[in-house]
Amino acid sequence: MPHSRPSLRLYFHPLASYCQKVLVALYEKGVEFEPVFVDLADPTSGEALRKLWRIGKFPVLRDEARGVTVPESSIIVEYLDRHHPGQRQLIPGDGELAWQARLKDRFYDLHLHEHMQKIVGDRIRPEGKRDPFGVEQAKAKLATAYDMIDGEMGAKPWAMGEDFGIADCAAAPALFYARLVLPFGDRQHLAAYLERLSQRPSFARVTREAEPYLAMFPKG
What we know:
Layout: E1 8-12, H1 17-29, E2 34-37, H2 43-52, E3 60-63, E4 68-71, H3 73-83, H4 95-123, H5 132-152, H6 166-181, H7 188-199, H8 201-210
Parallel strand pairs: 1-2
Antiparallel strand pairs: 1-3, 3-4
């Protein structure tokens, strides 16, 4: 009997940090999905993504069984929790803990991830079009986020305590790339947190899969 095609398709690139966030969630859950590699430099590949999500940004999850297209990494993780929970829930069922988990997820996306991407994006701008003042602002905001994380991660293994969750899915790629644009310095709890994330089987798999593309990461 032929193997049936998975209901879920993930449109992604293995080097992209927000895609890695969703991959960590999928691997934590053990949910079967079909990976669809997207090369935005290839018009055909990019057009397939834009047919699903006209904004044209990945990751995008397509659930064929339900006829649903889901963009945006945090929303994808929440959708998976609701409709494809697999082996692990990543957002607590308790409402009080759930909003705290979502807050931490937004913290890593907005106050770490975005500033890291500002610095990386500036590196690939043409000469004369760069924004050194904006980069310095982003580095200062990253340093503030580093201090906040370092201050709270000495007493717990994961962002919400004992249970790995959505905020850790966000933190893993954000910190992996952030340290390449702004070293952690002597923030030992922050460094130890990234080490724990790096040893987590889900994120270790993500980094192995991204390794062939790491040469594309713009050096400073």
